[in-house]
Amino acid sequence: MSMTSRQRVVAAIEHRAVDRVPIDVNPVPEHYRRLKAHLGIELDEPSDYGTMEEAIPHPKVLAALGADLISVKLGSPTVRPRRADPPRADLVMDDWGVGLQRVHQDGGGSYLEPVHHPLAEATIEDLERYPWPDPSLPGRGEGAQREAKRLFEDTDLAIVGRFGGPIVQTAIYLVGFQRWLERSILEPDWAGLLLDKLTDIMMELDRVGLQAAGRYLQIFKISGDDFGTQRGPLYSPATFRGLILPRLRRRWLAARELLDAVNPRIQIIFHSCGGIRPYIPDLIDIGLQILDPVQPRAEGMDSFELKRDFGERLTFHGGVDEQQVLPFGSEEDVIAETELRLRAFAPGGGYICCPSHYVQADTPPANIVAMCRTARQWQGEA
C-alpha cells in the first residue's frame, strides 16, 4: 500500500492504517538555511519571515526529507497600515504596537524578543481606545486562497492553514509576561476584556482564512498558546478555566462551525509547550483533535502515558526531543529517540512524527535528516 502525503496524513489523523508514519518539520530561518545547504538545495525564496520568524520549507526541501505537511498563512493586506513609531531605534514594531529587539543566540541564529509593551499599565478605557489591527483589510484572504490552491493542485502535501494568531501570547506581548501574570490574578475583569478584544480579532482572521482557503486544507492550526512550563502547568485550574478556557471555547466553536461548512474532515491542531497534561481533557472537550508539540521532557508529558490516556481521542504531533537530543545528540541518539516516540505514539494511528518544537538554529541538519529517515523506515505498528 503506497500513499501520497495528503492521503497519509488524513489517514493518520483519522486513526486509520497508513503505509508509514507521516513526518513534519518546522524550522526557524537560520536552521532552514543550513538545512538547505546540507541537502544541496538552492532556491530563490523570499527572506521575509515576519516578526515570528518561522520558515515554511519549500516542497523540494520537504520532498528531500520525506516530510508530508506544509503550511499556508494569510496574505498581506493590499494596503498595509502604518505601524507605530518605535520608541528606540533598535526596535522592530509589529502590527500590535509591540516593540521587539533582536537577540542573538550563542548557538547561532537570533530571534525577536518583545521589550516594549504598550498596554502594560493600560486601563479599561485605554483598551477601548487602543488602535487594534483591522482583521478585515482586503488582500489577506486572496493571498491564502492562491497559495492553498497552488499547493493543493501542484503537490500532494497535506496543507495546514494558519490564520489568526495566539490569544494569550499576544496579551503577554502587549502587557509583558510578569505584568500579565499579575494582572490576570489581581484584575481578572481587565484581563478578560483584553482577551475578549484579542479573541474577536483572531476569530475574524480565522474566518477570513477559512472562507478563502478552507476547501484545500486537511488541518487547521488554531494557533497556539504556551500554557505549560518545564515543571507543569503555568496557570492554576481556576485561572485556566475561568479566564482562558472560555475565550478558547468561543473561538474554537466558531472555527468548528466554519470548518463544518467548508470542509468537515479538517481537524483542529493546537500548540502548547510544557507540562499541560491537566489541561488536556478541557481542550478535548472544546474541540482539540491534534496536540502539538508534545514536549517529552516536561512534567507529566510521558509519551506512553499520553497515548494510553488520550490516544483514542487525540492525534499527537511532535514528541521528538528538541531540547537535548536533536540539538546535542549523536545520530545514534537521534535514531533511538525517534524510535522511542514511534513506539509510544504510532500504534493504532494518530501520530505525526516531528520535533517537539520549531527546529532551532543549533540543531545539526544531519540530525533532522536522521529523524526523518528513521521515521520513513520505521517497521513497527503504525
Describe the structure.
- The mean pLDDT is 95.
- The chain has 14 helices and twelve strands.
- The chain has one domain (5-377): TIM Barrel.
- A seven-stranded parallel beta sheet has the order 1-5-6-9-10-11-12. A three-stranded antiparallel beta sheet has the order 2-3-4, with no helix packed on it.
- The protein is α/β, with parallel strands linked by helices and 382 residues long.
- The chain has helices spanning 5-13, 29-39, 59-65, 124-129, 140-154, 168-175, 177-186, 188-213, 237-262, 280-285, 303-310, 325-328, 331-345, 365-377; strands spanning 69-73, 91-93, 99-104, 110-116, 158-162, 219-224, 228-229, 232-233, 267-271, 290-292, 315-320, 351-355.
- Strand 9 (267-271), helix 10 and strand 10 (290-292) form a beta-alpha-beta unit.
- Helix 8 (188-213) runs parallel beside helix 9 (237-262), helix 11 packs parallel to helix 13 and helix 13 (331-345) packs across helix 14.
